[in-house]
Specification:
The protein is α+β, with helices and mostly antiparallel strands. About 25% of the residues lie in helices and about 30% in strands. It has one domain. The strands form three sheets. A four-stranded antiparallel β-sheet has the order 3-2-5-6, with no helix packed on it.
């Protein structure tokens, strides 16, 4: 009876070690990103790597963004800041590998390393400092894009090498 109790105690104490997920336990799967501009009240639009808008608001603001974008895939965001009379700025929000992810190797958390941390996004951590931007005054009206068709004979020789033939 006593031998079974010892085996059970050893099993209960060692199982968490083999099935742990260090980055999920010691890290996070989403991080707050602080966004400030001068002038305040600038429009914020945050899009993910699929160009889907995940946040819209004004500065100052703190937005919580997920660090994972799928199994073994880190999130990537673009923060677009704009204000009337000022130029637009786009700032990337990047993530890097979380050091706690490698804790799975030391502790032996195979499940944590191959399933839990990659699935929760905790294997990634924020690599972008708080966003503090001074928007530059706009120097003139923003003109809409235009299309100009020219004859091939009028294209400078230096630009001809980058032309693409369409069928």
């Amino acid at each position: 009876m006593k031998q079974n109790s010892v085996k059970l105690a050893v099993l209960v104490l060692t199982l968490p070690i083999f099935f742990s997920s260090c980055a999920t336990i010691f890290g996070k799967s989403s991080y707050p990103v602080s966004i400030n501009t001068s002038p305040t009240g600038a429009s914020i639009s945050i899009t993910d790597k699929k160009s889907k808008e995940v946040y819209k608001g004004t500065t100052p603001s703190t937005v919580t963004l997920k660090s994972g974008a799928g199994f073994f895939s880190k999130a990537e965001y673009q923060v677009k800041l704009s204000s009337p009379g000022f130029g637009e700025q786009v700032i990337p929000v990047n993530y890097k590998l979380n050091g706690w992810y490698f804790g799975n190797l030391l502790i032996g958390g195979v499940i944590g390393m191959l399933i839990v941390d990659p699935a929760t996004g905790a294997m990634w951590k924020l690599d972008t400092p708080p966003i503090n931007v001074t928007l530059a005054k706009s120097t003139g009206a923003i003109l809409p894009p235009t299309l100009k068709i020219i004859d091939i004979k009028d294209v400078p020789q230096s630009m001809k090498s980058s032309l693409v033939k369409l069928k």
